[in-house]
Amino acid sequence: MSDQILWFATRGAGVVSLLLFTAVVGLGILTVTRWQSSAWPRFLTVGLHRNLALLSVVFLVAHVVTAIVDPFTALGVVAAAIPFASSYRPFGVGLGVISLDLLLAIIVTSLVRERIGQRAWRAIHWAAYASWPLALSHGLLSGSDAAAPWMIVVDVACIALVTGALAWRIRAGGSHRSQLALVAGAGGRPGPQG
After folding, report:
1. I need a surface site. Which of 38, 138, 140, 142 has the fewest CB within 10 A?
2. Quick one: DSSP state of residue 75?
3. Global pTM value
4. Which helix (H) or strand (E) holds 76?
5. For residue 72, how many C-alpha atoms fall within 13 Å in the half-sphere facing its CB?
6. CB of 98 within 8 A of CB of 91?
């Protein structure tokens, strides 16, 4: 495989992974607030969140593997596993490695969720909220296209989506479990907050 193909594959997989990861975080916020409507039932949000997370992991694996074998970065397995061990843009790559480690913790605990219990899984799953800005910072600090206008648009869009979702979450006032209990008692279904 030519070096240029590896370089484009690394960059492309990284950008697609960031976009998917951003969508996963946004949908995770919707899932936590238990948002739903008659046109978009909650199980669709949960299913889409899970499937986009899996697809994001596929692109993340492609990003990491192509970065490891790409001779330009000379990343290697050690630098991909140990934060700040890279000779190529060590701080930015190190943030990406930490983000990857947090995601691995989320993946592993999701696979053993029933054994560790909901409370432990949820506590570890909150790492996704720390992992996302680390992944974004990784791209900003180590991405060769970080200053390109198209990449700035991608980064701004990702930041806007997550910031908007967080603002919506704060405005919604937490999860809607108390509303679910009230509505369940009345025999209805909760919808989005107006």
Report:
1. 38
2. -
3. 0.81
4. helix 76-81
5. 14
6. no
